[in-house]
Design brief:
The chain is mainly alpha-helical. The chain is 77% helix and 0% strand. It has one domain. The chain is flat. The N and C termini lie far apart (66 Å).
Length: 83
């Protein structure tokens, strides 16, 4: 085979490969959109009012004292290893 024939076969193989990947990805995107529409009709999205934080007052207090002690111990060990 001549180099020009090898090059043309390589380009042809590349185009087949890229074309098959493009077709596969297009089908994948179409199927995802179809499934999203289908699931949207079967199970409508939940109400936004149902998703609220449990207790904002607990989150404002911060971590518990034993958790803070563990964090401080870990930081001091890390700093001791670096020096």
């Amino acid at each position: 085979m001549t180099p020009s024939q090898l090059l043309s076969e390589g380009v042809e193989l590349m185009l087949y490969g890229m074309g098959s990947v493009f077709v596969f990805l297009t089908l994948l995107i179409l199927s995802i959109h179809l499934m999203a529409r289908l699931l949207g009709r079967i199970a409508p999205p939940a109400a936004a009012a149902a998703v609220t934080p449990a207790t904002p007052a607990v989150q404002a207090q911060g971590p518990e004292p034993d958790v803070l002690a563990a964090i401080q111990a870990a930081i001091s060990q890390h700093r001791a290893r670096r020096d």
